Amino acid sequence: MRIRARNVTAWAMAGMVMFGAAAAHETSQPAGEPDASAAQAAAGATAPAASGIQVETLLKADSSWDGVAYAAYPEGRPELTVVRLTIPPHTTLPWHTHPMPNAAYVVSGQIVVEKQADGRKQTLGAGQVLAEMVDTPHRGITGDEPVVLMVFYAGAPDMPLSVGH
After folding, report:
1. Pairing mode of beta strands 79-87, 147-155
2. How far is CA 49 from the centre of its chain?
3. What is the separation of C-alpha 61 from the centre of its chain, rounded to a whole number of angstroms?
4. Where are the alpha helices (DSSP H) in the chain?
5. Is there a contact between 126 and 109 (Cβ–Cβ < 8 Å)?
6. Is 30's pLDDT higher than 70?
7. DSSP 8-state code for residue 27
8. Could you give the percent of the chain with pLDDT greater than 90?
9. ∠ Cα 73 77 78 (to 5°)
10. I want to staple 40 with a disulfide (CB 3.0 to 4.6 A). Which of 9, 45, 50, 142 is the partner?
11. What are the backbone dihedrals phi and psi of residue 39, each rounded to the nearest 5 degrees, phi first?
């Protein structure tokens, strides 16, 4: 079975929207009861204005931050992984690649992402999102404060999230 990119993207975006809606929405629902308005927002439905839910697209990309178009999602059954990554100050991560499309959201701090091939760099701070590169060596460099990232991976079972170089 071939996975269609738009299907995986829809699930990944729904997960990101649900994460954002859950983080930003204080519910009056008793614990354990579903919040219909958050579910509607995650499904792409327009919530009534009175609900107070706001949906903001943080990233919609068909290419990585260096402009290289994503070719395809990995073959096999989709597996989404979300990682909270805390990187200490003054850290240079090793060169690495990712075998699948992924996106990193900067929760706090500032990080410089560098592409190995040409030295191209991009600086990101809290609240910014990066469409990461696939199969292209790169690294991250932190400054004077720790960096916290939420990284969303669209892979397949038993696929590594990153590969060192």
Report:
1. antiparallel
2. 27
3. 11
4. 5-24, 36-42
5. yes
6. no
7. -
8. 68
9. 55
10. 45
11. -65, -40
Q: Is the model's pLDDT at 93 over the cut of 90?
A: yes
User: In whole angstroms, what is the distance from residue 94 CA to residue 162 CA?
Assistant: 11
Sort residue 52 into left (φ over 0), alpha (ψ -120 to 50) or beta.
left
Residue 158 confidence (pLDDT) = 95
Among 2, 125, 19, 130, which residue's Cα sits nearest to residue 80? Answer: 19
For residue 49, CA distances in Å to 1, 46, 144 come to: 41, 9, 41
**CB of 74 closer than 8 Å to CB of 12:** no
Total-model pTM: 0.71
pLDDT tens digits for 41-62? 455 555 555 689 999 999 999 9
- Closest among 100, 60, 56 to 81, alpha carbons compared: 100
With tokens 């979300």, the residue in question is 82
Spatial CA neighbour of 11 closest among 152, 158, 159, 160 = 152
Contact 64, 131 (CB under 8 A): yes
C-alpha distance across the termini of the chain, in Å: 32
Quote the tokens at residue 38: 């958050």
- CA angle at 15 for the pair 77 and 161, rounded to the nearest 5°: 55
d(CA 158, CA 107): 27
